[in-house]
Amino acid sequence: MSEENGDLEFGRILLALDATGGAEAAVRAAAELAAALRAELEALFVEDANLLRLAGLPFAREVGFHSATGRPLVLEEVARGLRAQASGLERMLRLAARQLHVQCSFRVARGRILPEALSQTGHPDLLVLGRQARRPSLRPRPRAVTPPVLAVFDGSARGYRALGAGAVLAARTGRKALVLIPEPSRDRFQTLKSRAEEWLRRREHAARFEQVLGLDMDSVTRRLRSLRGDVVVLPEPRDGISEAQLTALLDAVDGTVLLAR
Amino acid sequence: MTKPARLQPEQLARRCDPSSFSFETTDQLEDLQDIFGQARAVDAVRFGVAIQREGFNLFVLGPPGTGKHAFVRQFLQSRAAGEKRPSDWCYVHNFEQPHKPRALCLPPGRGEQFRSDMHQLVEELGSAIPAVFESDEYRARAEEIDSEFSERQEKAFGELGQEAAGHGIALLHTPAGFSFAPTKEGEVLSSEDYGKLPDEERSRIAKVVGQLEEKLQRLIRQVPRWRKERRERMRGLNREMTMLAVGHLIDELREKFADQEAVRTYLDAVQQDVLDNIEDFRKASEQQPVMAGAPEEPASFRRYRVNLLVGGEADGGAPVVFEDHPTYNNLLGRVEHVAQFGALVTDFTLIKAGALHRANGGYLMLDVFKLLTQPFSWEALKRVLNSKEIRMDSLGQMLSLVSTVSLEPEPIPVRVKVVLFGERIWYYLLHAYDPEFGELFKVAADFDDQVDRTEDSHQAYARLVATLARKDKLRPFDRAAVARVVEQGARLAGDAEKLSSRVQTIADLLRESDHWATEAGRSVVTALDVQRSVDAQIYRSDRVRQRVQEAILRNVVFIDTAGARVGQVNGLSVLELGGFAFAQPSRITATTRLGEGEVIDIEREVDLSGSIHSKGVLILSSFLASRYSRNRPLALAASLTFEQNYGGIEGDSASVAELCAILSSVSDIPIRQSLAVTGSVNQHGQVQPIGAVNEKIEGFFDICKARGLDGSQGVLIPASNVQHLMLREDVIEAVRAEKFHVYTVETVDQALDLLTGIPAGEPDAAGNYPAGSVNQRVMARLGDLMARRQALAAEARGKKRKRHHE
After folding, report:
1. Which among B497, B506, B566 is positioned nearest to B530, based on CA atoms?
2. What is the spatial distance between Cα B438 and Cα B256, in angstroms, rounded to a whole number?
3. What integer pLDDT is reported at residue B525 of this predicted model?
4. Do B618 and B741 belong together in one domain?
5. Would you give the distance in Å from CA B624 to the centre of its chain?
6. CB contact B543 to A (< 8 Å)
7. What is the number of other CB atoms lying within 10 angstroms of the CB of residue B481?
8. How far is Cα A171 from Cα B475, in angstroms, rounded to an integer?
9. How confident is the model at residue A2 (pLDDT cuts 50, 70, 90)?
10. Could you tell me the CATH number of the domain that includes residue B488?
11. Total structural domains in chain B?
12. Which residues contact B412 (CB under 8 A, 6 or more apart)?
């Protein structure tokens, strides 16, 4: 049975978090989705090994994102901060899970978040990443209007999963859904749009659609950056996604990225 | 001395002969073109309306019911219909000073078009602007700018990262920023590995990290400048793209209103404001109403609305506005407020027009009494007429009663002819006490409540009856009915030689007559119906009169109609209650005694009389002294009173009766109680006319009739009141049958003749009156009183001398 005709099934959602911020929004998004899709939620908090090693060096200093001022990094403080953050996120996750009747687990690992998330065994159906961009934003602060949930649809089975997850998340959070279709051909875009609309209509969802004039991940990333959304669901490419592409995506969205597998 | 005259029946009312009319019914008569009998006022209205000079506003004065209101309204409407329709006025947002909305003047009929066009423009902008921002072109160019700056940033950070990598150092992302650390095979060196490095290497690393940190700091400080630069570029792009959508839409309006300089200036400001607030339109396309009952239109779009204050069709003539409730706000307009989230807010769309706005370029009719009784309205109207502009000042703000945000709308120039309506007293009071009044209301149109009764006016009255009957869809009146209406018109005027011009009262009489004709199943109203209507009007109103007559007939109120009494006379007073006047006979008594010439008015002593009555009594004192005691002190004291009067009395129409009562008391000659007397008297004993003579005669007649007419009863009236007689038919019939009489008197002596049956007497060359005459007996009594007074004085002097010697 193809995804186009079947129901959405997400057995396991992996939520990967680190200390860079933006984790709270990712926790909420993942918990809502897990509740809506009746999936099991597994959270992984990754303590950045490089950060800990850096903090152990005698000259370790941090230059602020916004202030541009330097301040010393102290290992004990960094380690304590990471532990506190992990514990706070765990409390938050378990509270949300209890309220939404979601089965969840929480564990802490050390390493780098993206390799750790991408290399997880058991192959989760949905990978949720929450982190901030790695550099100061050039764009204005988020607008008062709640931005739509962004979803990328390419017509593939994973595309339908991304479309469904995006629509469900939009409905759960009371937001609109905007579906990007990376397709240079206008006719092909219209075909994909019609199929997606019909698919959503059968599930009593609706969305706006927009054509992205490029099939590659870079085109999608550029459009995501200009849309200024804070949550995007997209299908993981068949040949996988590189750490660099994922980093670029996270920088572009500056919020929560969900990869449907 | 001439004898008092006894009036003949034909002198008691001036009848209107139906045969003097050439028509059968009023259907054969044409309508009156002008209002009946108001030639002077009509000329004044025509003049006042036609003259276009400063201050030539009208004050239409006169008693109610003369038809002045209907006439002036009709006149103004017919004149205004042929005049040019005035300009439309709108209020629009003032983009420079939002609290001072701008007033725009447009040719007649174009205000509505402008409002509609602006409404459509905003709707079109609401879809056109978001469409531009969703276009591929905009998206591509925005992404271009985004990419340029992102790449610039990526490049700068990338170059810094590469420079660091060249030194074996990595740029790392920390929770709150960036840091640099030496790496080995992609991993940051641990502190142990770092400690194993040679000192020189550690120094080098520390030095390089320090340099890189400085560069990183400079780079991060660069970011706000890039951000600003990007923002400027995006703003420029947004304005450029918005102009594509807005420019041609606004240009269409500019062309449409090319002849309106003020509108074009306003449209320039609108365009600039739209460009400055593009985000409002972009947000509006995404935004959902957040609250139940919240307006669908975003608040920011309201500023592009047009508040059409005054406007309408292009044709239709000048406005004629009658403001029946001339409050300050209803005259000058108001700025309303709406509650939003617990606060009162307002904007130019909540400015409401007042009567002056609606009447601008035309005519405004106001009732002066209502105007004067509304706080601040009169002053506001004068201010507008003086300044020739309508300036809306909030009363609440002016009096510091409210502290909400309010507006100062731009004043609107005004050219209006104001017509005030009111009774004469208001005109005279305003003229006397308001120095501005004369400057602002230079034309008085004085509507009279009566006209001369001539053959011509009879004919005009007939046409008035015809006009009113047709207007009210009444049955036609036959000639006898019209004649009866004419007679009633004279009775209403209280003068046989005048006709009432109170059209309202006449119209009511006609309507009621028509009703009785309907009841009787007649197709034409006859004199019987008119008479029934008159009788029914009296019957509906005369409950009090019946009670007063009843009290007299039951001897609760003492009025004699037979016999003779010393110092007692029947006077006649008139009561007016609820528009119905009737006479009540009053017993006036006088007592006299030794005194020093004073006449005590008991009513005045207890404040039950008015000043005119008091004046009448003082005149009596003067008359007594000058006639009977010219060369010696008047050794008399008299007291006068209206018996059983508990409600106060005013007027001097009883002064003849009072004088006769005093002279009766002094002379000890009784007065016939079968007669009543009315009239005022002057210092020389001449009898002067009084008012309501008809009601007075009929009042005494009714009592006498109820007790039985015996031919001795009658009423004495001033001779100069004969012209006013329009008595009831039953009174005239009684006179014709010599069962009742109406006498006219010119002097008090004539009255004494009639009342006492004894000649008053005229003095001879030596000043002596004939023996036995009333005046001789008065003189004799006064002489006795004087002698008695002198005797008393001598006795007193003797006693005083005796005490002195002792």
Report:
1. B506
2. 46
3. 97
4. yes
5. 50
6. no
7. 29
8. 78
9. very low
10. 1.10.8.60
11. 4
12. B89, B103, B309, B357, B360, B389, B390
- Residue B298, chain A, CB below 8 Å: the answer is no
CA distance A40 to A24: 18
A21 contacts A81 by C-beta, under 8 angstroms: no
CA distance A68 to A62: 9
Is there a single domain that holds both residue B625 and residue B770?
A: yes
Task: Give the whole-angstrom CA distance, residue B694 versus residue B543.
Answer: 19
In Å, how far are B13, B139, B730, B742 from B497, measured between CA atoms? 10, 96, 21, 19
What does the pLDDT look like over A185-206, one tens digit per residue? 889 999 999 999 999 998 888 8
Does B772 lie in the same domain as B648?
yes
Residue B712 annotated in active site: no
Residues B706 and B592 in one domain: yes
Torsions phi, psi for B11 (to 5 deg): -85, -10
Cα(B387)–Cα(B407) distance, rounded to whole angstroms? 20
The structure tokens listed for A96 are 């949300």
> Domain for residue B4, yes or no?
no
pLDDT at residue B696, rounded to an integer: 96
* Residue range(s) defining the domain that contains residue B247: 131-253
Tokens representing B387 are 């300044």
Residue A256 DSSP code: E
Q: In what order do the strands lie in the sheet with A149-152?
A: A104-111, A40-48, A12-17, A126-130, A256-260, A231-235, A149-152, A177-182, A208-212
| Count of Cβ atoms closer than 10 Å to residue B614 Cβ | 15
Q: Which residue ranges of chain B lie beneath pLDDT 50?
A: 289-294
Q: Are residues B60 and B171 in the same domain?
A: no
Of B541, B570, B592, the last residue of a domain is B541
**Rounded Cα gap, residues B368 and B381, in angstroms:** 11
Enumerate residues 173 to 192 of chain B having a beta carbon within 8 A of any beta carbon in chain A: 173-182, 187-191
**Angle, CA of B692, B694 and B696, to the nearest 5°:** 70
A65/B157 touch (CB, cutoff 8 Å), yes or no: no
Q: What is the ipTM of this complex?
A: 0.78
* Tokens linked to B458: 């009879």
pLDDT of residue A1: 36
Distance from the A228 Cα atom to the nearest Cα atom in chain B, whole angstroms: 11
Q: Do the Cβ atoms of B104 and B266 come closer than 8 Å?
A: yes
As a whole number of angstroms, the distance between CA B592 and CA B248 comes to 105
Q: Go through the domains of chain A in sequence order and give each one's CATH number.
A: 8-132 (3.40.50.620), 134-261 (3.40.50.620)
Report the residue of chain A nearest B181, measured CA to CA: A54
Cβ–Cβ gap B177/A21 under 8 Å: no
Distance, CA of B504 to CA of A70 (rounded, Å)? 98
Contact A138 B227 (CB under 8 A): yes
Dump pLDDT digits (tens) for B611-633: 999 999 999 999 999 999 888 88
Nearest neighbour of A135 by CB, restricted to B136, B157, B205: B157
Contact yes or no for B400/B345 (Cβ under 8 A)? no
Length of chain A: 261
- The residue that leads in pLDDT, B225 or A248, is B225
Nearest-angstrom CA–CA distance, B6 and B745: 9
Considering CB atoms only, which of A70, A136, A138 is closest to B230? A138
Determine if residue B37 is left, alpha or beta; phi over 0 gives left, psi from -120 to 50 gives alpha, anything else beta. Answer: left
